[in-house]
Write a structure and sequence with these properties.
alpha+beta, two-stranded antiparallel ribbon, 20% strand
């Protein structure tokens, strides 16, 4: 506690010396109406006002952030409801799970249109389109036994795992 008092006394002496030097060199200091104590009071008031303004600014930012997060969450909920309503309006439409291999198109990409149709027909629908696909690297057993996962004889296979059927 004694060190704190000594520090405060030192601060007051330094400030007093600075004000005395300013008065001696250039006449009266700018806050000379009530002397040093008046100047200190004004300084404390100004510091409190600045601190209060900073706290208010932070509080407003948090309120705004909370409002924006609430708006984003509400939009997400609304979009999810709209998507569910759109799906419900489609007559006899279902997402089904399956496992049908896609053929390779002439350009080397998987062509999963026929595989999606086959998944839907197996479930009793007339047809459909792919919603989700799975790919796998297929290699001979010798490759895996050698501790590798790629090499000669390996190829990628793509499967329709879910389809939107009508």
């Amino acid at each position: 506690m004694g060190a704190a008092r000594a520090g405060l006394v030192t601060c007051v002496l330094v400030l007093s010396a600075g004000m005395a030097a300013a008065q001696g060199a250039g006449g009266a200091a700018s806050h000379d109406k009530g002397g040093f104590l008046s100047w200190m009071g004004h300084w404390f008031e100004q510091s409190a006002d600045n601190f209060s303004a900073g706290v208010d600014s932070v509080r407003k930012r948090f309120r705004n952030w909370g409002h924006e997060a609430n708006v984003a969450a509400q939009k997400t909920v609304d979009n999810t409801k709209a998507a569910a309503d759109a799906m419900a309006r489609l007559p006899n439409t279902r997402v089904v799970h399956g496992h049908e291999q896609c053929k390779t198109a002439p350009n080397g990409a998987p062509d999963c249109v026929a595989a999606a149709e086959a998944v839907c027909k197996k479930k009793g629908f007339k047809g459909g389109s792919s919603v989700d696909m799975t790919t796998a690297e297929v290699c001979p057993a010798e490759i895996f036994l050698a501790g590798r996962n790629t090499g000669p004889g390996c190829h990628t296979e793509t499967f329709v795992s879910r389809a939107l059927c009508q």
